[in-house]
Amino acid sequence: MHIHNFENQNSILNKFIAELRDVSIQKDSMRFRKNIERIGEVLGYELSKSLSYQNQTITTPLGDKIMALATDKLVICSILRAGLAFHHGFLNYFDGAENGFISAYRHHENDADEFEVIVNYFATPSLEDKILILADPMLATGRTLENVLQGLEKYGKPKQIHIVAVIGSEEGIAHTKKVFPENTHLWIAAVDPSLNARGYIVPGLGDAGDLSYGEKL
Fold first, then answer.
1. Who is most buried in 81, 111, 156, 205, counting CB within 10 A?
2. CA–CA separation, 15 vs 132, rounded Å?
3. How far apart (Å, rounded) are the C-alpha atoms in residues 6 and 155?
4. Domains of the chain with bracketed CATH
């Protein structure tokens, strides 16, 4: 797996991540969603540099200009719920992409620390020979992405897979690296060192879905 970690690069990205983490700011759910969207835009721009390009002639009112434009067919596939705001960030830049959505959640039986990941909804176009962008803001254990990868197999074999995340744990990245194809790319804004007993990233930011859209039962 090719890992693109932007945590140690000084840029405006740091401000967006800091506000996501800050308990006094993240209470503003609209701002929280907007910051996730903006991080999606930044990562989308960086990811765009890895795509295939071809020269095309563009006609202006005063003449012609040859420009290199991306030629890959993209599918942005987001994991609900927190992935919705992240998805919009990528769609702002890849406005011609096809779109997929996956419902995946943790089930803690009897509120125990151990959990299973349940994936029960897929809505996606064919992935055959396309660039698949898997958007999941929080890469905690990596088990959700593993289950999603298995569920997507029946929709075709992508030309390449790009995983995009806001924050990930070292453990989750290591697990993802083992289960995804070797030529997969991971684009991530920050990496944290550990998980707590319930599998949440520490220091992380909390539950991104709840902070974006409200607490669930």
1. 205
2. 28
3. 31
4. 2-50+72-212 (3.40.50.2020)
Which of 54, 51, 95 has the alpha carbon at shortest distance from 76?
A: 95
Q: From the centroid of its chain, how far is CA 120?
A: 19
Contact 159, 130 (CB under 8 A): yes
CA atoms within a 13 Å half-sphere pointing along the CA-CB vector of 136 = 27
> How much of the chain is helix, strand and coil, in % rounded to 5?
35, 35, 35
What is the reported pTM? Answer: 0.92
Contact 121, 69 (CB under 8 A): no
| DSSP annotation string for 107-156 | E-GGG-S--EEEEEEEE----TTSEEEEE-SEESSSHHHHHHHHHHGGG-
What would the pLDDT profile of 100-150 be if each residue is shown by its tens digit?
A: 999 876 655 666 666 676 777 889 999 999 999 999 999 999 988 998 999
Determine the Cα–Cα distance for residues 6 and 190; give it in Å rounded to an integer: 7
Cβ neighbors of 60 (< 8 A, separation 6 or more) are none
For residue range 167-209, list pLDDT tens digits in order.
Answer: 999 999 999 999 999 999 999 999 999 999 888 899 999 999 8
For residue 193, whether the previous peptide bond is cis, meaning omega lies within 30 degrees of 0, is no
